[in-house]
Design goal:
213 residues; alpha+beta
Length: 213
C-alpha cells in the first residue's frame, strides 16, 4: 500500500475544499439592480475608450449596468453553468438600455451565469427589472454640470418611486462623480431592504453630475 505524504494529503484537502466552496449557479438570496449615470461614466471611462455609448448622438441617462445575484453578505460570480452563452444577437439587443453589447456579454459571464437562467431569460429578467424603475425625469433636464449632495439623487429616486424605502437603495460615487444607483430586489423583482454590506451611500456633499449631451 502506498503511503500518502502529508503534503499530498493537504493538497487533496484544499482541492476538495475549493470545489465545495465554489459559487454555484442558482444559489443566491436576492438581486441588486445597478444603474449607471451614463454621462459621468463617459467622462470617467467611456470617452477614453472611444465607446459608442458616449457618441453625442446618443441620449443615454441611467443605463443598466447589470442585474446581480446577491447573498445577504457578498455575492457569487463567474459561476459554472450548463447554460449556453448568449449569441451576438442577444447582446446586441440589450444596447438600447445597456449602451454596449460588450457590457451585456460581460454581465452574463460574471453575474448571469450565477442565476441558473438561460442567457435569453437572464436578459429578459434584466430588462423587466430595469422597467420597474421610474428614473427621475428631473435629472434628464440638466443643462449644465452641477455639484450636489449624493443624497439629493437618492431623494429624487425615492420621490419617483414612492413605494421604496431609503434602505432599499444605495447611491455610489467614483472620483467625485455620482456613479450608480443600486436597488435591492427579491428574486421576484420586488424592492427589499438591502443587506448590511450594500447600505453604504456616498457621503459626498459636492458630487458632480454631468448633463446628458
Amino acid at each position: 500500500m502506498h503511503r500518502i505524504t502529508l503534503s499530498v494529503l493537504l493538497s487533496l484537502t484544499l482541492a476538495c475544499t475549493a470545489l465545495a466552496g465554489g459559487d454555484r449557479a442558482g444559489a443566491f438570496d436576492h438581486y441588486v439592480l445597478a444603474l449607471t449615470w451614463s454621462p459621468n461614466w463617459c467622462a470617467l471611462t467611456g470617452d477614453a475608450r472611444d465607446a459608442e455609448q458616449c457618441d453625442p448622438h446618443h441620449v443615454y441617462g441611467w443605463t443598466l449596468h447589470g442585474l446581480w445575484p446577491q447573498w445577504r453578505r457578498g455575492y457569487p460570480s463567474w459561476c459554472d453553468t450548463a447554460q449556453r452563452p448568449p449569441t451576438r444577437a442577444m447582446t446586441a439587443e440589450m444596447t438600447d438600455i445597456m449602451g454596449s453589447a460588450g457590457l451585456a456579454w460581460h454581465q452574463w459571464k460574471k453575474h448571469g451565469s450565477c442565476t441558473g437562467l438561460s442567457a435569453r431569460d437572464y436578459f429578459a429578467l434584466s430588462r423587466a427589472a430595469y422597467a420597474t424603475v421610474h428614473r427621475p425625469a428631473v435629472l434628464r433636464k440638466l443643462r449644465r454640470a452641477v455639484k450636489l449632495p449624493a443624497s439629493v439623487v437618492e431623494d429624487a429616486f425615492l420621490k419617483a418611486n414612492p413605494d421604496w424605502e431609503p434602505d432599499m437603495l444605495t447611491i455610489t460615487c467614483k472620483n467625485g462623480h455620482i456613479q450608480e444607483a443600486r436597488l435591492c430586489l427579491s428574486r421576484g423583482l420586488e424592492p427589499i431592504t438591502c443587506g448590511r454590506d450594500m447600505i453604504r451611500d456616498c457621503a459626498l456633499t459636492d458630487a458632480l453630475l454631468l448633463p446628458i449631451r
